[in-house]
Every structure is written in structure tokens, then in C-alpha cells.
């Protein structure tokens, strides 16, 4: 784990990430802001106004991963992939430091929500995700929603190791993974607003994300 100095602001820590990762986090936050408005039709949750912040900080643990791994153009080795998977646990550790006041800039009452998104957004609906293999509704709602926004944006973005996929391809992958990686009801809700998502991504691209 790369050492992070304490007494930094959380947003300063986020800006230690590679530029591609910063843009991804910002845009997952924007998608989560939009998704949270639609989630009112799914369930009541007083924390919806803060889901966008959870989306922004979901990958904060990646600052503890060597930058060369995050920007590597070649296929990752199994060992390298396992190291990157640790970003979920590193995110929890950083947010625990925020809970203790050693990292500033996040209201204390929001830290549990942000921790849930950071730690659990790679858990799968069918229990085959990481780091704990949680299943179904045991996974916090904010993490189940973040997983969809995170995956969608990752697919439609240029990555170090591949060009961006199309919006249609990304939506098709979400449909195919519903019931396996993602909660089916949340995928349905997300895709009901597909045209709005496409417009939003077009606007982001127009301003260079």
C-alpha cells in the first residue's frame, strides 16, 4: 500500500490519481447524481442527495495502488490484478482515517455512505465479486448503484489498454450482467433513462469531460 500523508483533504487525495482516474471519478459522481433521482421510484432513502459524493469517492483507494498499474497498457498479470482489487479495502482504510479526523473535507455523517460505496462497489449480485463475496441485498444500495454507474462509464471511456466502447454496447453489457453482476431491478431503472444518459455523456464529451 502506498503511504498517504495524514492531514490532507480528501479532494487533495483524489487529485493524486492519474488524470484518467480523476475524470472517471467525477463522471461516476455525475451519473450517480442523476441515478439517485430515479432511485426514488425504487425505494425511499434519505441519503440519496449524497449518492453523487459516494460515486465521486468510490475509487479513492486507488491512490494506494502504484500509478503504473492504473495506467498500464498491457494486460495485467494475475498478481497485478489482485493488487488493483485491493483498492476497495484501501478505500475503506482511508475513509476510516477520515472518520478519525486524520483526513479532512468529508462531513462525518457521510463517511459511512462513502465507505459502503468504496468498499463494496465490486461485490456482485450473485456473490461472485470482491472483496468479500457478498450477495444480493446484503450489498448496500449505494454500492449496488455505484457498480452500475462505474461499469457503464468505464465501458464508454477510453482506457489505457483499449478505446471506448459504444453506448449501445455498454447498455447491452449491463443487460447481460443483470442478475449476475448487477441487481436486475436497478439495471432496468438505469436503462429506462437510456436516452437521458446518452445525452448527458454527449454533453460531457463536448466539454472534454
From TrEMBL:
Q: Where is the HD-GYP domain positioned along the sequence?
A: 1-206
What Pfam families has UniProt attached to this entry?
HD_5 (PF13487)
Which InterPro entries does its entry note? HD/PDEase_dom, HD_GYP_dom
Q: What is the lineage of its organism?
A: Bacteria, Bacillati, Bacillota, Clostridia, Eubacteriales
- Origin superkingdom: Bacteria
Q: What is the species listed in this Swiss-Prot or TrEMBL entry?
A: Faecalispora sporosphaeroides
The name this protein goes by in its record: HD domain-containing protein
Q: Which SMART domains match?
A: HDc
Amino acid at each position: 500500500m502506498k503511504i498517504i500523508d495524514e492531514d490532507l483533504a480528501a479532494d487533495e487525495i483524489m487529485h493524486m490519481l492519474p488524470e484518467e482516474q480523476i475524470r472517471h471519478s467525477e463522471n461516476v459522481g455525475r451519473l450517480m447524481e442523476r441515478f439517485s433521482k430515479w432511485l426514488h421510484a425504487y425505494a425511499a432513502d434519505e441519503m440519496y442527495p449524497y449518492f453523487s459524493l459516494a460515486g465521486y469517492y468510490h475509487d479513492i483507494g486507488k491512490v494506494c495502488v502504484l500509478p503504473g498499474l492504473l495506467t498500464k497498457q498491457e494486460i495485467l498479470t494475475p498478481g497485478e490484478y489482485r493488487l488493483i482489487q485491493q483498492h476497495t479495502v484501501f478505500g475503506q482504510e482511508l475513509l476510516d482515517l477520515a472518520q478519525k479526523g486524520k483526513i479532512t473535507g468529508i462531513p462525518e455523517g457521510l463517511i459511512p455512505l462513502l465507505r459502503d460505496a468504496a468498499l463494496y462497489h465490486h461485490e456482485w449480485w450473485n456473490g461472485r465479486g470482491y472483496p468479500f463475496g457478498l450477495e444480493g441485498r446484503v450489498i448496500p444500495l449505494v454500492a449496488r448503484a455505484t457498480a452500475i454507474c462505474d461499469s457503464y462509464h468505464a465501458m464508454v471511456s477510453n482506457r489505457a489498454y483499449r478505446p471506448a466502447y459504444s453506448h449501445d454496447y455498454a447498455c447491452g453489457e449491463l443487460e447481460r450482467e443483470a442478475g449476475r453482476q448487477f441487481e436486475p431491478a436497478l439495471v432496468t431503472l438505469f436503462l429506462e433513462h437510456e436516452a437521458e444518459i446518452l445525452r448527458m455523456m454527449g454533453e460531457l464529451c463536448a466539454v472534454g469531460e
